[in-house]
Amino acid sequence: MCGMGRGHNVDLVRELSRQVPCQIGGGIRSVDAALATLKLGARRVILGSSLISEGAINTAFAQEAAAQIGSERLVFAVDSRGGRVAIRGWQEVTDITPLEMMRALEPFCSAFLYTHIDTEGLLKGIPFDVVSELRGATSRQLIAAGGIRNQAEVDDLDALGVDSVVGMAIYQGLMPA
Question: Can you give the residue range of the structural domain that contains 53?
Fold first, then answer.
């Protein structure tokens, strides 16, 4: 609910969750924190850094979260810089590839949120070859972010069976809000 373990947005999450269906992430590093976020009204929680421990995929934590929360309420963030998973607010890059992470964690979540950090916010387009490979690696919902610049890219991702997160293109007026 807040990145890097600083502060919280409890009131904002509660209010937004009342108005629209939400999935909430950022700073959720325990099953208890995930359950508390769901109690605020979020439909799903996004877990990221907690899925990596000492440089390895933390399948035990993923399994525990799925057992206590339900995999249908879990989205796992896979943030990639230079082809490797980045954690802790994108500050630490691991040796794990997005493909490895998704394959290992697929049984424990309903969706993956893939962010291509290398193109995030740059309006250079998202690399379709990478997203296509990831789409082929999971039967779960795949949501992609990172450099999407126009409606044509959103449509192309949709044709692959991939949902989109668009930010900068909307902020810059390249796409309608």
Answer: 45-171
